[in-house]
Design brief:
The protein is α+β, with helices and mostly antiparallel strands. It has helices at residues 5-21, 24-40, 43-49, 55-66, 73-84, 91-105, 121-135, 167-180, and strands spanning 108-115, 139-146, 153-158, 161-166. The chain has a four-stranded mixed sheet. Helix 4 (55-66) packs antiparallel against helix 5 (73-84).
C-alpha cells in the first residue's frame, strides 16, 4: 500500500474521532509538538523503526515527544492503534498528515518569513498585516527566522507561494541578466 496514503488515512480517522470528542485542537497541538520533535531530533525516527526497541518504549517516546499527558485519551488511543498495527515508524508522517488535514479543514495557512536581520516589532506588525490581507479570511500560522545570507530584505513562504524580496535574490537576478547579454 502507498506510504503516502496510509498516514493520510490515519490522520483523517484521528481527526474524525477527535472532532467527535471536541479535542481536535488538542490533538493538533500534540501532533505539532511531535512533528517539531522529529525535526529537531531525527534519531526519534531511528528508534521507532528499530525492531529491537520494545513497543512500550516507542509509545513512551512518542508520548514524551508530543508532550502528551495521561489525560489525552484520544492521543493515547491513537498510540495503542499504532502499536497494534505495528505502525510506530509512520508516526512522523501521520503527524504531518494530521497537521495538513487540520489546517485544510480550518482554513489555516502556514507563513514562514525569513529576514536578513531581526525585524523591529513595528516592521513585523506591518508585514503581518500585509500578509494577512493577501491571505483573505484564512488564519495565519506565522513564524520567522533570520538568515544573514539574504544580505538584506526578506522572503515569505506560504504553501506553494514564495515572495523573494531579498538583496541576495536581486544580486542573483542581476548576475543572470549580465551573463545572458
Amino acid at each position: 500500500m502507498n506510504e503516502g496514503l496510509i498516514p493520510k488515512r490515519y490522520a483523517k480517522a484521528i481527526y474524525e474521532v477527535a472532532a467527535q470528542k471536541g479535542v481536535q485542537q488538542r490533538i493538533y497541538n500534540l501532533m505539532n509538538n511531535l512533528a517539531h520533535a522529529f525535526e529537531i531530533q531525527p534519531d526519534i525516527q531511528k528508534a521507532l523503526a528499530n525492531p529491537f526497541v520494545a513497543p512500550q518504549d516507542k509509545k513512551k517516546l512518542i508520548l514524551t515527544a508530543a508532550q502528551a499527558t495521561s489525560d489525552d485519551t484520544e492521543f493515547n488511543n491513537f498510540l495503542t492503534l499504532l502499536q497494534n498495527n505495528n505502525r510506530f515508524a509512520s508516526a512522523r508522517a501521520i503527524a504531518l498528515a494530521y497537521l495538513e488535514t487540520f489546517r485544510n479543514l480550518n482554513n489555516i495557512k502556514v507563513v514562514k518569513v525569513c529576514t536578513a536581520a531581526p525585524l523591529d516589532p513595528e516592521e513585523e506588525k506591518r508585514l503581518k498585516k500585509i500578509i494577512a490581507s493577501h491571505l483573505g479570511n484564512a488564519t495565519m500560522e506565522y513564524s520567522t527566522q533570520v538568515n544573514p545570507e539574504l544580505i538584506g530584505g526578506f522572503t515569505v513562504q506560504s504553501g506553494n507561494e514564495r515572495l523573494d524580496a531579498s538583496v541576495a535574490n536581486e544580486l542573483k537576478q542581476l548576475r543572470l541578466n549580465l551573463i545572458s547579454k
